[in-house]
Structure formats: structure tokens, C-alpha cells
Amino acid sequence: MVSIIFLSWMIPIFGFLIKLSSNGPIFFIQKREGLKGTFFKCLKFRTMIINSDSDSKWADDNDHRLTKFGKFLRLTALDEMPQFINVLLGDMSVVGPRPHPINLNKEYESKIILFNKRHRFKPGITGLAQSKGFSGFISGLNDMRERFKMDVFYFKNWSIFLDLKIISLTFFKMISNLRYSNKK
């Protein structure tokens, strides 16, 4: 319910700012793999100029495709807020393993043993890895292995208290990043 209240003002305000920053839609919609290998349309606020690399190239904080407002949205993770709609639709949960673009899953399922176990759980808006600072750009196999280890830890130790801790850590990380973005 709280997410609906936030989205009710975020969509028009952020939508206006996204439209001011570049041509294109307000939302970035990408097919992702979810629970038991089913596919769904993951929603995000659009942070980049329209480009043909969105399904094949990871973005970092200095990617030339990012708009100025998009960079702010990514740094603060506010670009993820429309995923509460995915939660309401039943495609995602608030906490769980982050859903990756399909080509990224295909790349790592052959490199990391049991990587597809991630799909035994609903993907989340945030997860243990994200709350610990592992979000965004993946520079290689070791980055993905670290995220996967945290996903496995989460699966083995799940509790409502762990979810609440992850949500709290994520919130404080967002606030910290918001302060950092204001200093730039």
C-alpha cells in the first residue's frame, strides 16, 4: 500500500523529468526470468537514452548512455520503484534474488554450478547482495559468484527477520547514496 502512495506521485514527477532528459518512454521494460524459469516483464524507470545495447551490454555509473536524471535514479536505486507493480502482479517479491536480463542468465548458468537454483524463489526488488553493495555493473565471473553466494546464503537462512534486515539495509544504502549524489 505504501508503494502505491509513493508511485502515485513518483510516476508523474519522475516521468516528467525523464521526458525532459531524453526522448522515449517513461518506463524501461525488459523480459526477465522469474520463479521456476517463467518469464515476466520487469519494470523500471528509464535511465538511458534509447539504444540497441540494453539487452547485451551492462551499464556502469559512467556509461555514456545514462541521462543526467537517469544517473541520479540509478545511484539512489529509485529506478527500481516501478517493480512494486511487478510485486502486485505476483511476478516479484520485495526481497529475493535480483532478476537478471535473460542473456546474463544464459552466460552464467554454464559458468556457475547450480546458478539456476536462483529461480526456485521469486525474484526480488532487493536482495542480500544488493543490501551489501553488490548491485549494478558486473565486471566478471567473480562479481557474479559473490552475488550468487549471497543468494544461496539467503535461501538457506530465510526468515522474516532476515527480510526485514535486508529491507532496512537497502533503505539506508539508498539514503546514503542520495546524500552522496547531492554532493556531486
List the helices and strands and how they pair.
Blueprint lengths: L1 H20 L5 E7 L5 E7 L22 H9 L6 H7 L3 E3 L6 H8 L14 E3 L1 H4 L9 H17 L2 H24 L1
Parallel strand pairs: 3-4
Antiparallel strand pairs: 1-2
Described by strand count, sense and barrel closure, the largest sheet is: 2 strands, antiparallel
Main structural class: mainly alpha
Major sheet strand order: 1-2
Helix content: 40-55%
Gross morphology is: globular
Low-pLDDT ranges: none
N/C terminus separation: 33 Å
| Total separate domains | 1
Estimate the strand proportion. 5-15%
User: Residue-averaged pLDDT, rounded?
Assistant: 89
Tally of individual helices: 7
Cα radius of gyration in angstroms: 16 Å
Which sequence of SSEs, written as H and E, runs from N to C? HEEHHEHEHHH
Q: How many extended strands? A: 4
What's the short version?
The protein has one domain (2-183). Helix content is 48%, strand content 11%.
Task: Explain this structure.
- The protein is mainly alpha-helical.
- The chain has one domain.
- Helices cover 48% and strands 11% of the residues.
- It is built from seven helices and four strands; from the N terminus they run αββααβαβααα.
- It has helices at residues 2-21, 68-76, 83-89, 102-109, 128-131, 141-157, 160-183, and strands at 27-33, 39-45, 93-95, 124-126.
- The strands form two sheets. It has a two-stranded antiparallel sheet with strand order 1-2.
- Strand 3, helix 4 and strand 4 (124-126) form a beta-alpha-beta unit.
- The longest helix is centred in the C-terminal third of the chain and has 24 residues, at 160-183.
- The relative contact order is 0.14.
- The model has no long low-confidence stretch (mean pLDDT 89).
